[in-house]
Amino acid sequence: MPPMSTAATQPLSTSIHWRPFPGFDGLYYHVLDVDTERDLVDMLMKFDRGSKCVPHRHVGPTRTLVIEGDHLIFDSVDPSKLVSTRPAGTFSTNNGDETHIEGGGDNGAVILLSMTAVNQEIYEVFDANMVLNRVIDTSDFERGLKKQHKENSVS
Q1: Architecture of domain 16-141 in CATH?
Q2: Which of 65, 83, 127, 145 has a 20 to 30 A CA-CA distance from 73?
């Protein structure tokens, strides 16, 4: 039997050109698609072990598939309170209006997010006091996708 190629034995996350989330150590993203006609954004997120994002609320329906590791969901008011652990292979959905903090487990996490915009808004970002800090919309993801394409064409 021929030996397996190295590419076949490597995790998916090693073949992705990850972009760091500015201001967040251990948090990365890769935009896959922005469909403005259908108000959909598809992206991959990578969390290093123990990393967390800020409290945020997905405005519209969101679908999540955990590809690698454990995707951790924490309470938005008490970030030390673990709400759920989603191991690799877990598919989950929500109808939006869910505020939480996400993070990576002992082996980090790679997740596929499919997010639906409402009035072009994808999610709202809050500060530690749960005050609205910023609204992320489809145009933010369109800019991110253009930057990725530009970077990938230079490489």
Answers
A1: Sandwich (2.60)
A2: 145
